Protein backbone atom coordinates (compact mmCIF):
# COMPACT_ATOMS: atom_id res chain seq x y z
CA UNK A 1 0.00 0.00 0.00
CA UNK A 2 3.01 2.23 -0.20
CA UNK A 3 2.72 3.21 -3.87
CA UNK A 4 -0.24 4.47 -5.86
CA UNK A 5 -0.30 1.32 -7.99
CA UNK A 6 -0.50 -1.01 -5.03
CA UNK A 7 -3.31 1.03 -3.49
CA UNK A 8 -5.13 1.09 -6.81
CA UNK A 9 -4.73 -2.70 -7.14
CA UNK A 10 -6.12 -3.31 -3.69
CA UNK A 11 -9.04 -0.92 -4.23
CA UNK A 12 -9.98 -2.41 -7.59
CA UNK A 13 -9.85 -6.01 -6.34
CA UNK A 14 -12.04 -5.12 -3.37
CA UNK A 15 -14.57 -3.39 -5.61
CA UNK A 16 -14.79 -6.42 -7.89
CA UNK A 17 -15.35 -8.77 -4.96
CA UNK A 18 -18.09 -6.52 -3.62
CA UNK A 19 -19.69 -6.37 -7.08
CA UNK A 20 -19.66 -10.18 -7.30
CA UNK A 21 -21.36 -10.41 -3.92
CA UNK A 22 -24.02 -7.91 -5.03
CA UNK A 23 -24.69 -9.91 -8.19
CA UNK A 24 -25.14 -13.06 -6.12
CA UNK A 25 -27.52 -11.12 -3.89
CA UNK A 26 -29.49 -10.05 -6.96
CA UNK A 27 -29.76 -13.70 -8.00
CA UNK A 28 -30.84 -14.88 -4.55
CA UNK A 29 -33.66 -12.36 -4.25
CA UNK A 30 -35.39 -13.72 -7.36
CA UNK A 31 -34.30 -17.36 -7.49
CA UNK A 32 -37.43 -18.91 -6.01
CA UNK A 33 -40.04 -16.76 -7.63
CA UNK A 34 -42.96 -18.37 -9.46
CA UNK A 35 -42.89 -17.19 -13.04
CA UNK A 36 -46.18 -18.51 -14.33
CA UNK A 37 -48.97 -16.25 -15.52
CA UNK A 38 -52.34 -17.18 -17.02
CA UNK A 39 -52.38 -17.26 -20.80
CA UNK A 40 -55.36 -17.25 -23.12
CA UNK A 41 -54.95 -18.97 -26.50
CA UNK A 42 -57.69 -19.26 -29.06
CA UNK A 43 -57.45 -20.88 -32.48
CA UNK A 44 -59.61 -19.41 -35.19
CA UNK A 45 -58.68 -21.39 -38.32
CA UNK A 46 -56.88 -24.60 -39.19
CA UNK A 47 -56.00 -25.85 -42.66
CA UNK A 48 -54.23 -29.04 -43.62
CA UNK A 49 -52.19 -29.85 -46.71
CA UNK A 50 -50.28 -32.87 -47.87
CA UNK A 51 -47.11 -31.76 -49.60
CA UNK A 52 -43.70 -33.02 -50.62
CA UNK A 53 -41.35 -32.86 -47.68
CA UNK A 54 -37.74 -33.12 -48.83
CA UNK A 55 -36.37 -33.09 -45.29
CA UNK A 56 -37.91 -36.46 -44.41
CA UNK A 57 -37.55 -39.99 -45.76
CA UNK A 58 -41.04 -40.26 -47.23
CA UNK A 59 -42.61 -38.59 -50.20
CA UNK A 60 -45.47 -36.59 -48.81
CA UNK A 61 -46.06 -35.28 -45.27
CA UNK A 62 -48.83 -33.39 -43.57
CA UNK A 63 -48.44 -29.63 -43.30
CA UNK A 64 -50.72 -27.65 -40.99
CA UNK A 65 -51.59 -23.95 -41.08
CA UNK A 66 -52.96 -22.46 -37.89
CA UNK A 67 -54.34 -18.98 -37.27
CA UNK A 68 -54.55 -18.14 -33.60
CA UNK A 69 -55.23 -15.38 -31.07
CA UNK A 70 -53.01 -14.88 -28.05
CA UNK A 71 -53.49 -12.74 -24.98
CA UNK A 72 -51.42 -12.66 -21.79
CA UNK A 73 -50.18 -10.13 -19.28
CA UNK A 74 -46.47 -10.74 -18.67
CA UNK A 75 -45.88 -7.80 -16.32
CA UNK A 76 -45.62 -9.86 -13.08
CA UNK A 77 -42.70 -11.85 -14.49
CA UNK A 78 -40.41 -8.85 -15.01
CA UNK A 79 -38.32 -7.79 -12.03
CA UNK A 80 -34.83 -6.42 -11.57
CA UNK A 81 -33.19 -9.70 -12.52
CA UNK A 82 -35.01 -10.29 -15.83
CA UNK A 83 -33.36 -9.08 -19.01
CA UNK A 84 -35.80 -10.51 -21.58
CA UNK A 85 -38.36 -13.21 -22.14
CA UNK A 86 -38.26 -15.71 -24.99
CA UNK A 87 -41.83 -16.81 -25.72
CA UNK A 88 -42.73 -19.72 -27.93
CA UNK A 89 -45.95 -21.43 -28.94
CA UNK A 90 -45.64 -25.18 -29.28
CA UNK A 91 -48.01 -27.86 -30.48
CA UNK A 92 -47.96 -31.27 -28.84
CA UNK A 93 -49.69 -34.38 -30.14
CA UNK A 94 -49.41 -38.15 -30.55
CA UNK A 95 -49.55 -40.16 -33.78
CA UNK A 96 -49.51 -43.85 -34.73
CA UNK A 97 -45.82 -43.80 -35.54
CA UNK A 98 -44.58 -41.46 -32.74
CA UNK A 99 -45.96 -41.31 -29.23
CA UNK A 100 -44.94 -37.70 -28.59
CA UNK A 101 -44.45 -34.91 -31.08
CA UNK A 102 -43.64 -31.31 -30.16
CA UNK A 103 -43.40 -28.62 -32.81
CA UNK A 104 -42.64 -24.94 -32.24
CA UNK A 105 -45.02 -22.83 -34.31
CA UNK A 106 -44.21 -19.27 -33.33
CA UNK A 107 -41.84 -17.36 -31.05
CA UNK A 108 -41.17 -13.83 -29.88
CA UNK A 109 -38.59 -12.02 -27.76
CA UNK A 110 -39.94 -9.51 -25.23
CA UNK A 111 -37.25 -7.18 -23.87
CA UNK A 112 -37.53 -5.41 -20.54
CA UNK A 113 -39.15 -2.04 -21.08
CA UNK A 114 -41.24 -3.16 -24.03
CA UNK A 115 -44.97 -3.55 -23.89
CA UNK A 116 -45.66 -6.55 -21.68
CA UNK A 117 -49.37 -6.95 -22.38
CA UNK A 118 -49.73 -9.36 -25.25
CA UNK A 119 -52.91 -9.02 -27.24
CA UNK A 120 -52.33 -10.61 -30.62
CA UNK A 121 -55.17 -11.36 -33.01
CA UNK A 122 -55.17 -13.52 -36.16
CA UNK A 123 -51.52 -14.46 -35.95
CA UNK A 124 -50.15 -16.89 -38.49
CA UNK A 125 -47.59 -19.46 -37.44
CA UNK A 126 -44.01 -18.46 -38.10
CA UNK A 127 -42.60 -21.91 -38.73
CA UNK A 128 -43.85 -24.81 -40.81
CA UNK A 129 -46.02 -27.28 -38.96
CA UNK A 130 -44.71 -30.40 -40.66
CA UNK A 131 -45.56 -33.81 -39.34
CA UNK A 132 -43.27 -36.83 -39.51
CA UNK A 133 -45.62 -38.68 -41.85
CA UNK A 134 -49.34 -38.30 -42.24
CA UNK A 135 -50.41 -38.16 -38.63
CA UNK A 136 -52.11 -34.75 -38.57
CA UNK A 137 -55.14 -35.70 -40.61
CA UNK A 138 -58.08 -36.53 -38.37
CA UNK A 139 -55.93 -36.25 -35.30
CA UNK A 140 -58.25 -36.00 -32.33
CA UNK A 141 -56.11 -34.00 -29.96
CA UNK A 142 -53.47 -31.38 -30.69
CA UNK A 143 -52.52 -29.18 -27.73
CA UNK A 144 -51.13 -25.69 -28.14
CA UNK A 145 -49.17 -24.25 -25.20
CA UNK A 146 -47.39 -20.94 -24.77
CA UNK A 147 -44.13 -21.33 -22.79
CA UNK A 148 -41.31 -18.95 -22.08
CA UNK A 149 -37.67 -18.87 -21.16
CA UNK A 150 -36.73 -16.22 -18.60
CA UNK A 151 -33.30 -14.71 -19.39
CA UNK A 152 -31.92 -13.20 -16.15
CA UNK A 153 -29.14 -10.75 -15.39
CA UNK A 154 -27.59 -13.24 -12.99
CA UNK A 155 -28.47 -16.86 -12.30
CA UNK A 156 -30.44 -19.71 -13.84
CA UNK A 157 -32.69 -19.55 -16.91
CA UNK A 158 -35.99 -21.20 -15.98
CA UNK A 159 -38.26 -22.67 -18.63
CA UNK A 160 -41.84 -22.00 -17.64
CA UNK A 161 -45.07 -23.14 -19.24
CA UNK A 162 -48.02 -20.79 -19.23
CA UNK A 163 -51.05 -21.94 -17.38
CA UNK A 164 -53.46 -21.87 -20.29
CA UNK A 165 -53.51 -24.28 -23.20
CA UNK A 166 -55.97 -25.23 -25.86
CA UNK A 167 -56.64 -28.64 -27.41
CA UNK A 168 -58.29 -29.09 -30.74
CA UNK A 169 -58.95 -31.80 -33.33
CA UNK A 170 -57.61 -31.38 -36.84
CA UNK A 171 -59.73 -31.68 -40.00
CA UNK A 172 -60.32 -35.05 -41.65
CA UNK A 173 -59.56 -34.02 -45.19
CA UNK A 174 -56.89 -32.01 -46.90
CA UNK A 175 -57.28 -28.53 -48.35
CA UNK A 176 -60.34 -27.70 -46.32
CA UNK A 177 -60.41 -24.91 -43.78
CA UNK A 178 -61.91 -25.66 -40.39
CA UNK A 179 -63.02 -22.70 -38.30
CA UNK A 180 -63.48 -22.71 -34.52
CA UNK B 1 13.73 -1.76 20.36
CA UNK B 2 13.40 1.16 18.02
CA UNK B 3 14.97 2.81 15.05
CA UNK B 4 16.88 5.29 17.18
CA UNK B 5 19.08 2.42 18.44
CA UNK B 6 20.40 1.86 14.90
CA UNK B 7 19.01 -1.68 14.72
CA UNK B 8 17.55 -2.33 11.27
CA UNK B 9 17.89 -6.13 11.21
CA UNK B 10 14.16 -6.68 11.60
CA UNK B 11 13.26 -4.70 8.46
CA UNK B 12 12.85 -6.12 4.93
CA UNK B 13 15.87 -5.53 2.71
CA UNK B 14 14.12 -2.98 0.54
CA UNK B 15 12.95 -1.04 3.60
CA UNK B 16 16.48 -1.14 5.04
CA UNK B 17 17.67 0.66 1.91
CA UNK B 18 15.18 3.46 2.57
CA UNK B 19 17.62 4.81 5.12
CA UNK B 20 19.29 6.61 2.26
CA UNK B 21 16.11 8.15 0.87
CA UNK B 22 16.60 11.53 2.53
CA UNK B 23 19.81 12.04 0.55
CA UNK B 24 18.05 11.15 -2.70
CA UNK B 25 15.18 13.61 -2.33
CA UNK B 26 17.50 16.51 -1.61
CA UNK B 27 19.30 15.86 -4.87
CA UNK B 28 15.97 15.75 -6.72
CA UNK B 29 14.87 19.07 -5.34
CA UNK B 30 18.00 20.72 -6.63
CA UNK B 31 17.34 19.20 -10.09
CA UNK B 32 13.80 20.57 -10.25
CA UNK B 33 14.72 24.16 -9.68
CA UNK B 34 17.47 24.06 -12.27
CA UNK B 35 15.91 22.08 -15.22
CA UNK B 36 12.10 22.14 -14.66
CA UNK B 37 11.08 19.36 -17.09
CA UNK B 38 7.61 17.75 -16.88
CA UNK B 39 8.83 14.13 -16.72
CA UNK B 40 11.11 14.88 -13.77
CA UNK B 41 8.18 16.39 -11.90
CA UNK B 42 6.06 13.24 -12.43
CA UNK B 43 8.83 10.89 -11.40
CA UNK B 44 9.68 12.79 -8.29
CA UNK B 45 6.12 13.23 -6.93
CA UNK B 46 6.26 11.37 -3.65
CA UNK B 47 3.44 8.83 -3.34
CA UNK B 48 4.34 7.19 -0.07
CA UNK B 49 2.25 7.13 3.07
CA UNK B 50 3.34 6.06 6.50
CA UNK B 51 2.02 2.84 8.02
CA UNK B 52 -0.79 4.38 10.02
CA UNK B 53 -1.79 6.34 6.95
CA UNK B 54 -1.94 3.17 4.86
CA UNK B 55 -4.17 1.54 7.43
CA UNK B 56 -6.40 4.62 7.45
CA UNK B 57 -6.56 4.65 3.64
CA UNK B 58 -7.54 0.98 3.55
CA UNK B 59 -10.27 1.48 6.13
CA UNK B 60 -11.57 4.52 4.25
CA UNK B 61 -11.90 2.82 0.89
CA UNK B 62 -13.34 -0.38 2.30
CA UNK B 63 -15.94 1.63 4.22
CA UNK B 64 -16.89 3.78 1.24
CA UNK B 65 -17.28 0.84 -1.11
CA UNK B 66 -19.29 -1.22 1.37
CA UNK B 67 -21.62 1.70 2.10
CA UNK B 68 -22.14 2.41 -1.59
CA UNK B 69 -22.77 -1.31 -2.19
CA UNK B 70 -25.49 -1.41 0.47
CA UNK B 71 -27.10 1.82 -0.79
CA UNK B 72 -26.92 0.59 -4.39
CA UNK B 73 -28.41 -2.81 -3.56
CA UNK B 74 -31.36 -1.32 -1.70
CA UNK B 75 -31.98 1.36 -4.35
CA UNK B 76 -31.80 -1.17 -7.20
CA UNK B 77 -34.18 -3.48 -5.35
CA UNK B 78 -36.68 -0.66 -4.87
CA UNK B 79 -36.72 0.69 -8.42
CA UNK B 80 -36.29 -2.82 -9.95
CA UNK B 81 -33.24 -2.03 -12.07
CA UNK B 82 -29.91 -3.70 -11.42
CA UNK B 83 -28.15 -1.12 -13.60
CA UNK B 84 -28.52 1.53 -10.90
CA UNK B 85 -26.83 -0.74 -8.35
CA UNK B 86 -23.81 -0.96 -10.63
CA UNK B 87 -23.77 2.83 -11.18
CA UNK B 88 -23.85 3.55 -7.45
CA UNK B 89 -21.00 1.12 -6.74
CA UNK B 90 -18.98 2.71 -9.55
CA UNK B 91 -19.61 6.13 -8.00
CA UNK B 92 -18.35 4.79 -4.66
CA UNK B 93 -15.27 3.44 -6.44
CA UNK B 94 -14.58 6.86 -7.98
CA UNK B 95 -14.95 8.61 -4.62
CA UNK B 96 -12.54 6.14 -2.97
CA UNK B 97 -10.05 6.65 -5.81
CA UNK B 98 -10.02 10.38 -5.17
CA UNK B 99 -9.80 9.96 -1.41
CA UNK B 100 -7.18 7.22 -1.11
CA UNK B 101 -4.96 7.14 -4.20
CA UNK B 102 -3.20 10.51 -3.89
CA UNK B 103 -1.07 10.85 -0.74
CA UNK B 104 -3.04 13.46 1.16
CA UNK B 105 -1.42 15.02 4.26
CA UNK B 106 -3.77 13.16 6.60
CA UNK B 107 -1.95 9.93 5.68
CA UNK B 108 1.43 11.34 6.70
CA UNK B 109 0.71 12.35 10.24
CA UNK B 110 2.85 9.57 11.81
CA UNK B 111 6.15 9.52 9.96
CA UNK B 112 8.83 7.03 10.93
CA UNK B 113 11.67 8.61 12.82
CA UNK B 114 14.75 7.62 10.88
CA UNK B 115 18.21 7.97 12.35
CA UNK B 116 20.15 11.01 11.09
CA UNK B 117 22.52 10.18 8.26
CA UNK B 118 26.07 9.49 9.46
CA UNK B 119 29.10 10.14 7.21
CA UNK B 120 30.08 6.93 5.34
CA UNK B 121 33.56 6.03 6.62
CA UNK B 122 33.16 6.31 10.38
CA UNK B 123 29.45 5.31 10.29
CA UNK B 124 29.86 1.91 8.56
CA UNK B 125 32.77 0.75 10.70
CA UNK B 126 30.92 1.69 13.90
CA UNK B 127 27.61 0.12 12.68
CA UNK B 128 29.06 -3.30 11.81
CA UNK B 129 30.37 -4.37 15.21
CA UNK B 130 27.13 -3.05 16.81
CA UNK B 131 24.94 -5.07 14.40
CA UNK B 132 26.92 -8.26 15.03
CA UNK B 133 26.66 -7.65 18.78
CA UNK B 134 22.83 -7.26 18.50
CA UNK B 135 22.55 -10.46 16.44
CA UNK B 136 24.44 -12.46 19.06
CA UNK B 137 22.18 -11.08 21.76
CA UNK B 138 18.98 -12.06 19.88
CA UNK B 139 20.18 -15.64 19.43
Mean pLDDT of chain B: 75
Secondary-structure element series of chain B: HHHHHH
What is the rounded distance between the termini of chain A? 76 Å
Q: Which CATH top level class of the largest domain in chain A fits?
A: Mainly Beta
Q: How many E strands of chain B? A: 0
Q: Spans of chain A with pLDDT under 50 lasting ≥5 residues?
A: none
Binned, the helix content of chain A reads: 10-25%
| Mean pLDDT metric of chain A | 87
Rg of chain B to the nearest angstrom?
A: 23 Å
Note the overall shape of chain A: elongated
Which stretches of chain B of 5+ consecutive residues score pLDDT under 50? 24-32
Number of helices of chain A: 1
Structural class of chain B: mainly alpha
- Biggest interface, CB < 8 A: A-B, 24 and 30 residues
SSE order and pairing:
The complex is a heterodimer of chains A (180) and B (139).
Chain A: H1 4-30, E1 39-52, E2 60-73, E3 82-93, E4 101-111, E5 117-124, E6 129-130, E7 142-152, E8 159-168, E9 177-179
Antiparallel strand pairs in A: 1-2, 1-9, 2-5, 2-6, 3-4, 3-7, 7-8
Chain B: H1 13-16, H2 21-34, H3 38-43, H4 51-79, H5 82-100, H6 120-138
Helix pairs in contact in B: 4-5
What does this protein structure show overall?
The complex is a heterodimer of chains A (180) and B (139). Chain A has 180 residues and is an alpha+beta fold. Chain A folds into 2 domains: 32 residues; 136 residues, Immunoglobulin-like. Helices cover 15% and strands 47% of the residues of chain A. In chain A, strands 1, 2, 5, 6 and 9 form a 5-stranded antiparallel sheet that branches. Chain A has a 4-stranded antiparallel sheet with strand order 4-3-7-8, with no helix packed on it. In chain A, a hairpin with a 7-residue loop joins strand 3 and strand 4. By secondary structure, chain B is mainly alpha-helical. Chain B has a domain of 57 residues. Chain B contains 6 helices and no strands. In chain B, helix 4 packs antiparallel against helix 5. The radius of gyration of chain B is 23 Å and the shape is elongated. The chains are: A alpha+beta (180), B mainly alpha (139). Chains A and B meet through helix 1 of A and helix 4 and helix 5 of B. Chain A: Its main location: endoplasmic reticulum. Chain A: It holds the Pfam family SPC22. Chain A: InterPro entries: SPC3.
